[in-house]
Amino acid sequence: MNEQTALITGASSGIGFELARCFARDDYRVVLVARRLEELQEAARLLHQEFGGVDILLLPLDLSRPEAPEQLYAETQRRGLQIDALVNDAGFGETGYFADTDMQTELRMIQVNATSLVHLTKLYLRDMMARNYGRILQLGSVASFSPSPCQAVYAATKAFVLSFTEAVQHELKKQRSAVTMTILCPPPTDTNFFQVAHAEHTWAANHTASAREVAEEGYDAMMEGAARSLPTLAAKANFFSSLVLPDSVLATLMNTQLQEVRH
Transmembrane residues, as ranges (predicted)? Predict the structure, then answer.
């Protein structure tokens, strides 16, 4: 019986739910975090249906609120939970020219995609360092590797996550810590991301990877203590293109993927 606990943000659907499924399959207690309780309840129902008596805790929280990470940490502390694996999956995007998009939406995006990720990492990493054990999975993107016109702020948040993760990975090695941190950089994936980002009719939305395939590759990389996971050939192609092509060309290619497809 696995007595470890995994906390997954953005766990009610998409990659986050599939990662929760991986932990549940391996008998972890899972703490599912997302904004809407009814969606978390449906996710829990599906996990119970597949895995029976898996121990599930639902914590509905809106990570776009600056106080939410401290509230989440305080609640897990109050319940006496030791978080052995932290998955920072919560995030969303917005599509359109930066001059035209909504400022408040983008500020919430920065809060969820970057600020809350750093905040939760700080809170739980300190506990993991004290125990000299723990795993953290950060959700990046192929957008981490290049500018992305029409998703300028989203791509910038994912570039931030990549830089932050790689820096802390180096620090953990210098400190000889057994705690590991992995970044998962998926290609466009079959989730509700494109609907939320108002990009459901783009080329990228019509050429997506399976959320389950992405999650399982990321989970395996996390368990192995790998620095990075590039699930699918498409993700690997994006990464290697970023090594050889100038940013101006990469920006053009990314912009092409966000053009509306007319049927």
Answer: none
